[in-house]
Specification:
Blueprint lengths: L2 H4 L2 E3 L51 E6 L7 E5 L6 E6 L6 E3 L5 E3 L8 E4 L16 E3 L7 E4 L4 E5 L12 E5 L10 E4 L4 E7 L4 E6 L4 E5 L9 E3 H4 L2 E6 L10 E7 L2 E6 L10 E6 L6 E4 L1 E4 L8 E7 L2 E6 L4 E5 L13 E4 L3 E8 L22 E8 L13 E7 L7 E7 L12 E10 L5 E9 L3 E10 L17 E4 L8 E7 L4 E6 L8 E6 L10 E3 L7 E7 L4 E6 L4 E5 L1 H4 L7 E5 L8 E7 L4 E6 L10 E5 L7 E3 L3 E4 L8 E6 L4 E5 L4 E5 L7 E3 L5 E4 L3 E8 L1
Parallel strand pairs: 12-16, 17-21, 42-46, 47-51
Antiparallel strand pairs: 1-26, 2-3, 2-27, 3-4, 5-6, 6-7, 7-8, 9-10, 10-11, 11-12, 13-14, 14-15, 15-17, 18-19, 19-20, 20-22, 23-24, 24-25, 25-26, 28-29, 28-53, 29-30, 31-32, 32-33, 33-34, 35-36, 36-37, 37-38, 39-40, 40-41, 41-42, 43-44, 44-45, 45-47, 48-49, 49-50, 50-52
């Protein structure tokens, strides 16, 4: 056994005090794939001292990611799958500073290296041992930084930059879009009087805590009221400033680094002198929103505590989990608010030069897939806030870059509100030669659980030749008021030769796999395919895999069933193609069966599709002949998971009275279906669509005039 293995874990538990715990507030990330894990780095198992006290149970405390900064390794993050007992895998990130975790399983890491920016690592909990930063990941900007934290409901990353300490004029706090790519500049900044090392945000209290290197804590209340897209002065936005002091009022903090939050309890770490291995400290206090100035806090420090350079902290179920860099350890102080003075840690794990630590949530065991519905899998009980309608009017000849696709936002679609805003999709970064006549074609929009849009597009010259194509990822698409949707500081484009996107149409976001499936029509030279890209991709990246088996023609759109790894695809040859074990098969995926509507006309050309898992039903649109104003149809099928062959639909909505000529897309809210009827310039709504039977030749329950709608998607509140 190596020395590293021998000293991995020790414990010191007090069996004389019964401790109550607050209700856990840690998140469970249901979209993360938990894969089989392989032992890789320095770790061990809990060495119980035999006193029978098991109040701190590492095996049930969840999973953690820890960044190492030993001055030698170029950047690595190790993952503990079962508490802090064993390091299973180590992932090479190329960055060495602060970590933050998104609710979709994306790990963000800061770096203080030149032009390395923030790393966004997709689906970190399912990455294999010895994997590294690559095509499924992305970089956000090029700015250097230390600590990092998320304001997730605003899609913002906040980076602490200590360059001011060296006399730089750079701001102390930089704000980035968590959706943006490598070209992103900071959206805004906060210029503090003293540099911060790290911080934390409380979504419940809308409050930001910033650990400053002068030993004080800056608190910003009502963060959502600030314009974080601008340059702000700390003297104007910092609401309160707190200094840890002892009973005599003397300042006892030197250099604050880490901040942990749980409820109204705040945990701070102080590294003291970074070159001294025994002068670190932890402080704990409660913040009711009024605490200010000198505060006599609970302080833990001294040689028994092993606190020398506690660079980062987590507060979880009342326990302080500390990245102790000088002493090469992860330390746990159980029920930290009840401790004071020079106390030993309850639990410790050896780890070389830990720089930052984050909790990845609960561990449900190796090989478990926690499948959650994707954002398009909407139930009747969900609150639908908006309907997005993508328009594709024909180009007007003679204008220079004048014609762009447009997104119409309709409020409260279940009550069918009014058009709220029109958003120009101006793809400035991918539009090609400046000054040439061009037109942006918007093909499909899907929205993820955070409200970010994935838009398939192509750019044509003179309305004929495609000069560029790809997927535009748009931050908070439903709330962008009359603004262009291609802004490099907030958005990014997945585009280029390596993406293998030639003629992209339908888009399907699969959150549990960190993926986006794109139905590509191919070209006269390259056949159609399903291109599976990382949802975190940026620029000219290679696909995760590409499926070439698309039946006898191309696929226009898809819907994925995450619970069964099954993809339902609408084929332009008139068949629904069903791929069982889609991701498990990867590049070898092929249709397991097909479903053909027996009521289809002479020309059948399926386009929009939705699978309702609650009823195991399919809803599919058929444009028929693209030039016929009255031959469109909508079909519903029961028992989709087993249906096969030439089948009579449960219902066929078709005929002159329906207004269906070219129904190119649909969205389903668990009860009603919304149809983009392109040829007749309408969005049509059939209420209670799954209750319909047989041939339905009646007009839609509701409709709204929209010029050439190409795609529809629903956004939850």
């Amino acid at each position: 056994m190596t020395k590293c293995r021998e000293q991995v874990i020790s414990s010191n538990r007090d069996n004389t005090s019964a401790r109550s715990r607050p209700v856990p507030r840690s998140r469970l990330y249901a979209t993360i794939v938990i894969s089989s894990l392989v032992l890789a780095a320095c770790g061990g198992s809990d060495d119980d001292d035999g006193n029978g006290d098991t109040s701190f149970n590492a095996a049930t405390s969840g999973r953690f990611a820890v960044a190492m900064n030993d001055g030698v390794t170029p950047g690595a993050v190790s993952l503990f799958s079962s508490g802090l007992e064993t390091v299973d895998r180590t992932f090479t990130t190329g960055a060495i500073q602060g970590l933050a975790i998104g609710s979709d399983g994306t790990l963000f890491q800061n770096s203080d290296g030149a032009s390395s920016g923030i790393r966004a690592i997709s689906q970190i909990a399912s990455r294999v041992d010895a994997d590294s930063f690559g095509a499924t990941d992305r970089q956000i900007g090029t700015a250097a930084g230390k600590g990092l934290f998320l304001i997730e409901d605003q899609n913002l990353l906040v980076s602490c930059d200590t360059s001011n300490a060296a006399g730089s004029s750079d701001a102390d706090l930089l704000v980035f879009s968590s959706i943006a790519g490598a070209q992103a500049m900071a959206l805004g900044s906060i210029d503090l009087s003293t540099s911060c090392w790290d911080g934390a945000y409380s979504a419940v209290d809308d409050r930001m805590y910033l650990a400053l290197v002068d030993g004080t804590l800056a608190i910003i209340d009502e963060v959502s009221a600030l314009d974080l897209n601008s340059a702000l002065s700390g003297s104007e936005v910092v609401s309160r400033r707190v200094t840890p002091v002892d009973e005599t009022g003397m300042k006892v903090s030197v250099n604050l680094h880490g901040v942990g939050l749980e409820g109204n309890v705040v945990l701070l770490s102080d590294v003291g002198d970074a070159a001294i291995a025994d002068d670190g400290a932890l402080f704990v206090f409660s913040d009711d929103g009024t605490v200010v100035n000198n505060v006599n806090m609970t302080r833990i420090a001294g040689p028994l505590s092993m606190l020398g350079n506690p660079v980062d902290v987590i507060l979880q179920e009342g326990d302080a989990i500390v990245a102790e860099k000088s002493n090469n350890a992860i330390l746990v102080f159980e029920d930290v608010a009840s401790l004071i003075g020079d106390v030993e840690p309850t639990f410790q794990t050896a780890f070389r030069a830990p720089e930052s630590i984050v909790s990845l949530g609960a561990d449900s065991g190796a090989g478990t897939q926690l499948a959650a519905p994707d954002a398009t899998d909407i139930s009747a009980n969900d609150i639908v806030a908006r309907l997005l309608v993508g328009l594709n009017p024909p180009p007007v000849q003679g204008g220079v870059n004048a014609d762009v696709a447009t997104v119409v936002v309709i409020e409260a679609p279940r009550q069918f509100g009014v058009v709220d805003a029109e958003l120009d999709v101006s793809l400035s970064s991918v539009i090609g030669t400046v000054g040439t006549e061009s037109f942006t074609t918007l093909e499909n929009i899907q929205v993820d659980a955070a409200g970010n849009g994935y838009v398939s597009f192509d750019v044509t010259t003179d309305g004929t030749d495609i000069t560029d194509r790809g997927i535009l990822v748009v931050s908070d698409i439903a709330n962008r008021q009359d603004a262009t949707l291609d802004v490099v500081s907030t958005d990014r484009a997945i585009s280029g030769v390596n993406t293998r996107l030639l003629n992209p149409k339908g888009v399907e976001i699969v959150a549990s796999r960190g993926a986006v499936i794109v139905a590509d029509q191919g070209s006269s030279v390259v056949g159609p395919s399903l291109v599976v890209l990382s949802a975190s991709g940026d620029g000219d990246v290679t696909p995760m895999f590409t499926v070439s088996s698309t039946g006898t023609a191309a696929i226009w759109d898809m819907d994925y069933d995450p619970a069964n790894d099954r993809l339902y695809a609408a084929g332009t040859a008139g068949d629904v193609l069903v791929y069982d074990n889609f991701f498990a098969s990867g590049v070898s995926a092929t249709p397991t069966r097909t479903i053909s509507p027996s009521t289809a006309g002479t020309t059948s050309n399926l386009h929009g599709i939705a699978h309702d898992s609650a009823t195991d039903s399919l809803i599919v649109t058929d444009v028929g002949s693209p030039s016929d104003f009255a031959d469109g149809s909508v079909y519903t099928f029961e028992f989709a998971s087993t249906a096969t062959g030439n089948l009579a639909p449960k219902a066929t909505i078709s005929g002159v009275n329906t207004g269906l000529g070219n129904p190119v897309d649909l969205a389903f809210d668990g009860t009603d279906v919304y149809i983009a009827e392109k040829l007749n310039n309408q969005v049509l709504v059939y209420r209670g669509v799954l209750s319909l039977n047989g041939l339905v030749e009646v007009a839609a329950d509701e409709s709204v005039a929209v010029t050439a709608p190409e795609t529809v998607t629903l956004v939850l509140q």
